[in-house]
Amino acid sequence: MSSSKDKDAILVPTVREVQQKFAEILSHGEDITWDLLTQNQGDVLKEKLSLFEANSNMFHWIWDQRKYTNGQSLTSLFFVMVVNDVCNTKLADQSRSWRLYPVFRCRRCVEKTGQSSSIDCCMTYVTQNSKCGNWNEFLLSPRFCHGVMVTPNRGVYKLIDGQVELKTYSISDRVLGYLTDPTDYSISPESLTKASKTPIDREKYNPGSAFGVTVKLVSEFSACERMLSLLLNPKNVQQSCDAIDLSDSLILFTHNTNNFRLASKIIKEKNCSSILANQQRSIFDKISKESERIEGKVDLIRSANGVPTKLQLKKVLQTNPEKRKQRKESDKDPNAVKENPPEITTIKVKDEDINLEIFGTVLKEHIVSLESFEILITSMSEHLEPEMFKLILQITQTFVEHTREEMCQQLKYYFSTESVLYQIILCIKKHYPSWNFNEIEEQSSDILRRVRYYFASSDPNSRVEFLKKCDKCSGYYDLFDSSKPDYSNFF
User: Got the DSSP string for 386-432?
Assistant: First the structure.
């Protein structure tokens, strides 16, 4: 009879099974994908890195690479797996004894068109302990444990006929003097099991935190390991993972700051990998169709959805200082959008029912995160008068229908309705803080112009005439001039 330990071991997925799940979540067929962060979205990257036991250098190494992408950040997460129980590299992907290391791939060189990076071009690779300027340097430099390394080629997850493409490399002959380095960080099946069975220790309600609670981290494992355990070992008994905890961790894969509804669905249906993969695929499908229509075959760039929680939006939308003294019961729940409500088509603003269909189909079809969009409009309905609510959506409709297409042609990446709506709200808050209806209506063209500038200034692609030939690969690069004037105050 098998021991309980043997039964647990059966649940450990093989290296190939793990990488297959990551590929289904982080890639789109054979396309090269990137996650975009604009100059003012560094906190999103910090939030992702906080899920690991990342040292401070990791953020600075990644953020510094913006000099190659016009001041914006283009990265993609992948995972290196190292096994030490096999010598034959052909057998490594079947091992169930592995260590997992997160790596961020950063765009550096591009093809001569300036729009798409080549698989053969230089890319920067950032690990917990190193920054490598190209793939060959990466294979020699990172301080992983001894064994056989299994990784997607050049850090690019590709699904060929539905199967992940993997490369193996022996790293057993390296002379590594880092093994006592306290910052060495890896994830193992053992640490995932421990994370899945350690209860969350929460302090009392704290309105200053994103979800109204303070979470005490357990030092034996990183914050993301609860989520990865649920993803990689779905049959394990999950005694600790709840919707709030999972929602915080999902930003690692979704590039979205609002994941509560997705987390709730994952926990309810107990099918983490397929639900997450399907959600990711739907987003990349939208981006892919838009990219093909605009340019043909280009890399897929996913912009960050930075719409905050309802609790944080309250500070942005608060138009009457006296109301700040009042605290509704609904304010205590920053996720007042229900877990799985029907799609909102009509919303009550004060005593008026407003049909959202009147703002056109284009606005609706470019919503990427329905949760973020509904957080925005429900927050608006609680703090704005009906006429102001309709005016802001009319301005959003105008931008999406008449300006968005032009911007997509120029920027070569997909941005969503909810991103446009949120930037319009921020623009009004900054430049028209009195929230005077007549003033905002009169200045609607100025608002559209400022929001257009915001998106134009987030272009990660350098102008073709400025590209220089790289002497290490077939690609081209440009160095962002950090001395250029800062026009952020304009927006």
Answer: HHHHHHHHHHHHHIIIIIHHHHHHHH-SB--HHHHHHHHHHHHHHH-
